[in-house]
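ok new one. same drill as before - structure tokens go in, u give me an amino acid for every spot. 437 of them this time. try not to just spam alanines like last time pls lmao
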């Protein structure tokens, strides 16, 4: 059993801390947000994530999980310290903003006493960050005994707890045997079950994280562009995706056309990899194109929506189903809905929004819209429906539901939730497939 300090209680820190506690380690989560820590002590989660509340409650109850605002306490009571703070993209350069990581590193250094500590970078950081953190700690505490390790996260929002406890891979980047051994002990409950752990150096571990997310983003944009072609060529993108997904070298995942990728990872990670590549004079043209095409994707979707209403949205009332960047999360960061709804509003449309988790943050992004408490309320009396997020409850809707509630049964489905046959009887527009009427 290891003693862990998790600095940061966002998606990565809170999920990782709770899951490590579930595996039997002693975990103390540190955050400088006093209100957040007080809420966690009361069992109030700062984010919506499946199974998170239950696994946090379990850890608190059995004494393996606790919360504090004191970095001194967190460092003193642990031998492994994870840095899980955010690394948002700099709005001017596109580079990851590492100021939070470096500030935490300095504070950790000031609180290291005599014991050896392993400092683990779980935040997504570019190559060279481990060396920078090492320099900061040495500069602020020359007597500190420590090592810096890179251990990227591969958690999908909405499924983060399951992903942590059933990982497809664990990547540990360590440059010395002592810190590597501690990390292997940390993950032993998972590796004993047969889950694969890849040992590498800190720089390579960083590259694995960025390469993974960028490849998936590129796969999303490939199927999106292919769906546009299928639409014009008269092919069915759903069948095309099934056909190529049967190839085990390609697989089914990330082959669903949509309004573009969003969230806290893909947008900033593709930009970060693009920037890193240019800095070492090895530009990645495929990634550059992926970023550009994803930025343009939401405007294409606005054009598609407008065309469904004869390019006249002024005065139309549209039911918007889903605004979070994906289902099973309340995360609005870089959601495609932000750009799409902004343009629809500028075009004069009235928007009625329903999202199972979107009411928490949605009003700050869409102050001009009306928020509804159910799908039926959003649909009732609207001139048409736009599906942006693939929530399961939307998949249960039928052509009759749309026909009975909409003033004019026009549906623009940006997630291809339904078969063409099931939508007969209404005007149904989807991606990469013919329009059904």
């Amino acid at each position: 059993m290891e003693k862990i300090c998790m600095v940061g209680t966002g998606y990565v820190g809170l999920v990782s801390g709770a899951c490590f506690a579930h595996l039997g380690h002693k975990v103390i989560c540190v955050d400088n947000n006093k209100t957040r820590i007080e809420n966690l002590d009361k069992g109030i989660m700062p984010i919506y994530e499946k199974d998170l509340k239950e696994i946090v409650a379990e850890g608190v109850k059995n004494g393996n999980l606790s919360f504090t605002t004191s970095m001194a306490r967190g460092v003193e009571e642990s031998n492994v310290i994870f840095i899980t703070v955010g690394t948002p993209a700099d709005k001017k350069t596109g580079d990851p903003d590492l100021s939070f990581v470096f500030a935490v590193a300095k504070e950790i250094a000031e609180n290291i006493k005599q014991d050896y500590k392993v400092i683990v970078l779980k935040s997504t950081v570019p190559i060279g960050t481990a060396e920078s953190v090492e320099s900061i700690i040495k500069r602020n505490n020359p007597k500190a005994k420590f090592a810096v390790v890179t251990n990227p996260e591969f958690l999908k929002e909405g499924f983060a707890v399951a992903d942590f406890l059933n990982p497809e891979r664990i990547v540990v980047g360590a440059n010395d045997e002592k810190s590597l051994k501690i990390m292997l002990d940390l993950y032993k409950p998972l590796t004993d079950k047969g889950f694969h752990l890849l040992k590498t150096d800190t720089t390579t571990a960083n590259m694995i994280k960025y390469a993974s997310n960028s490849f998936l983003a590129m796969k999303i944009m490939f199927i999106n562009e292919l769906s546009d072609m299928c639409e014009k060529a008269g092919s069915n993108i759903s069948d095309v995706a099934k056909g190529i997904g049967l190839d085990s070298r390609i697989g089914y995942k990330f082959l669903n056309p949509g309004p573009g990728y969003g969230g806290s990872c893909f947008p900033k990670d593709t930009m970060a990899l693009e920037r890193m590549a240019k800095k070492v004079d090895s530009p990645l043209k495929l990634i550059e194109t992926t970023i550009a095409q994803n930025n343009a994707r939401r405007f294409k979707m606005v054009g598609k929506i407008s065309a469904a209403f004869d390019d006249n949205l002024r005065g139309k009332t549209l039911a918007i189903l889903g605004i979070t960047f994906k289902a099973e999360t309340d995360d609005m960061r870089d959601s495609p809905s932000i750009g799409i709804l902004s343009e629809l509003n500028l075009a004069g449309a009235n928007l009625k929004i329903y999202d199972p988790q979107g009411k928490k943050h949605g009003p700050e992004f869409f102050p001009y819209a009306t928020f509804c408490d159910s799908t039926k309320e959003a649909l009732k009396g609207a001139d048409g429906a736009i599906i942006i997020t693939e929530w399961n409850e939307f998949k249960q809707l039928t052509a009759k539901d749309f026909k009975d509630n909409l003033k004019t049964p026009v549906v623009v489905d940006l997630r291809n939730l339904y078969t063409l046959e099931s939508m007969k009887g209404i005007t149904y527009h989807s991606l990469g497939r013919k329009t059904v009427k």
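The radius of gyration is 24 Å. and btw The first strand starts at residue 3 and ends at 7.
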